[in-house]
Amino acid sequence: MLQKTNFAALGELESEHAPSHSVFGFWLYLMTDCVLFASLFAVFAVMSHQFAGGPTGKDLFDIPGVALETALLLLSSITYGFAMLGAHRRKSGVVLGWLAITFVLGLAFLWFEVQEFSHLIAEGAGPGRSAFFSSFFTLVGTHGLHVTVGLIWMVVLAVQIVLKPEMSEREITRLTCLSLFWHFLDIVWICVFSFVYLGSVL
């Protein structure tokens, strides 16, 4: 009887510390997202000189403003890293604090992006103006949509932590998946900043 109890306890311990397939599955999802963004970058590369006699990126892009956007997103990646450090130490208060800062930085990034889109449309350079701006709005807008999803996901995780401050491995796994997603968006944005913005004005 004691032997069976020991085996049962061992089984529970192993199941608790068994490697999660969630992170591996999420890596697979990120690979599909890589294909999506690679396709959008390829389309932009083909359309990058199709201005239809209209304005170019060099005429309208505000590089200092975009550089500020980039700094905000990169800083949010650092603050999310601090949240993960708190998660591994099982300090829910620390996690919530850094998630809040990360959320504000991500929201500020989106605000600047919306302002940029509004400015371009007001200048007559909307998605229908030329193939260049059509591919630009599609690429940058898709990234912005991903950031929006990440912010919503962040709020959901924060609510779960508030309701259940005793963080388990499941909560840490969820935070890890969002961490992968958030850092992935940083990498994509660095490519956008370098290839789309700087490449268009140089």
TrEMBL record:
InterPro entries: Cyt_c/ubiquinol_Oxase_su3, Cyt_c_oxidase-like_su3, Cyt_c_oxidase_su3-like_sf, Cyt_c_oxidase_su3_a-hlx, Cyt_c_ubiqinol_oxidase_su3, Ubiquinol_oxase_su3_dom. It is a multi-pass membrane protein. Its main location: membrane. The keyword Membrane applies. It comes from the Bacteria. It is found in: Cell membrane. Keywords: Cell membrane, Electron transport, Membrane, Oxidoreductase, Transmembrane, Transmembrane helix, Transport. Coiled coil: none annotated. The keyword Hydrolase does not apply. Residues 1-201 form the Heme-copper oxidase subunit III family profile domain. The chain crosses the membrane at residues 26-46, 66-87, 94-112, 132-163, 175-198. PROSITE patterns: COX3. Cytochrome bo(3) ubiquinol terminal oxidase is the component of the aerobic respiratory chain of E.coli that predominates when cells are grown at high aeration. Has proton pump activity across the membrane in addition to electron transfer, pumping 2 protons/electron. Belongs to the cytochrome c oxidase subunit 3 family. Heterooctamer of two A chains, two B chains, two C chains and two D chains. PANTHER family: CYTOCHROME BO(3) UBIQUINOL OXIDASE SUBUNIT 3 (PTHR11403:SF2), CYTOCHROME C OXIDASE SUBUNIT III (PTHR11403). This is Cytochrome bo(3) ubiquinol oxidase subunit 3.
